[in-house]
Amino acid sequence: MTVKLTAIISVSGKSGLFKIIARGRNGLIVESLIDQKRFPVFASQKVSALEDITIFTTGENVPLGEVFFKMMEKSGGDKWLAEEKDAAVLRKALNELIPLDNERVSDNDVKKIFNWFNLLTEKKLLEVEQPSVQEESTGVSEQESPEEASNTEKKSATKKSKKTKTKGSEEGEETKTKNKSKQSKSDKTGQKKENKDNSKKTTKTKK
Question: Is residue 104 situated within a structural domain?
Fold first, then answer.
């Protein structure tokens, strides 16, 4: 499970977080989540999209959205350690949720994670993103029993059989039509030949 962080960014040299309001040729128009003031952010400024940030751990890196989801579960959806200033305490609390790579994650990073989480919680901007239901490799969805899947396969096989028969009958009818057309042409050709022969005989008789 994760948390949606779409259009939320941090801007280098500025405290807090910002929401993207508009995009232009030269940069962005953003709104501060702290005081709701809007201002332009130019392409030359360094920005970081929260949805692209991952946290270093002793295993695979963990997306920030997943870290925030774990923090939400721990805090019950409220702020968590918002008044705590000791980085060691914050680091210990975060390590209980994910195995941080303590050599690569600085104290400043840990504080920033908590500050961002508590700001987004205060502004009610942490929305849980529900995973989409995917079918299992067996071809049976989570809401479909094996028996229903078997019935579905039988229906599908019946439909294919009907389609095959229909195609066969259509091809047979087309073949018959072509044969009739050829026979009709040959009959007409024969009649023309007979007419020519008869006309020749009549001409000879007259002579």
Answer: yes
pLDDT score for 130: 76
Q: Which residues of the chain have pLDDT under 50?
A: 135-145, 162-166, 199-207
Domain count, the chain: 1
* Contact (CB, 8 A) for 114 and 84: yes
Q: Residue 60 is part of which domain span?
A: 2-129
The DSSP call for residue 30 is E
Q: How far apart are CA 53 and CA 48, in angstroms?
A: 8
Q: What is the DSSP string of 148-197?
A: HHHHHHHHHHHHHHHHHHHHHHHHHHHHHHHHHHHHHHHHHHHHHHHHHH
For the chain, strand residue ranges (E) read: 2-4, 8-11, 18-23, 27-32, 38-42, 47-49, 54-55, 62-63, 127-129
| Angstrom distance (rounded) from CA 139 to CA 123 | 42
Six token digits for residue 148: 């229903």
- Residue 111: which CATH number? 2.30.30.730
Tokens of 139: 């071809």
For the full predicted model, state whether its pTM sits above 0.90.
no
State the pLDDT at residue 133: 57
User: Which residues, listed in sequence order, are joined to residue 127 by a DSSP beta bridge?
Assistant: 4
The answer to the question of residue 31 being in a domain is yes
Q: Look at residue 106 and tell me if it is in a domain.
A: yes
